[in-house]
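Researcher: Next entry: Putative Acyl-CoA N-acyltransferase (Vibrio nigripulchritudo).
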Amino acid sequence: MIIRLAKLSDSANIHALSQHLGYQDEGVSVAEQRLKALLNSNHDRVYVAQLNGKLVGWLHCFYAQRVASESFIEIGGMVVHPDVRGHGVGRALVEHATEVHKGKWRVRCHSEREDTHSFYLKLGFKINKTQCVFEKKNSRD
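Model: Predicted structure:
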């Protein structure tokens, strides 16, 4: 298995993988725009996992600074193809990213994804808190 930084040419494969976890399908062109922005960011990294030449997983992490608390690195998203889940791809992505980027790490998981909670606990993450996420969308008329 090869873990490497994503390239813009990976955007279609990253988009296809994302559909397996239920991310909204906004099209490959939107995925390409988003990946391009992340690749050009000084605070974001996207890693991909390749197995036998095929992209089978991705992980996005970013450096988060706060005014009143310690900075950290957060996993913004990770997807592993269903056919290779349970074969170490997710673990390899997380271990690679945490080895490259030293510091305090954080990941937020949907409260119903108990298998994901178990995955991160096995990797040494600890539950810190439970929180509510509030959203508001302002229209641009």
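Model: Note for the record: DSSP finds four helices and five strands in the chain.
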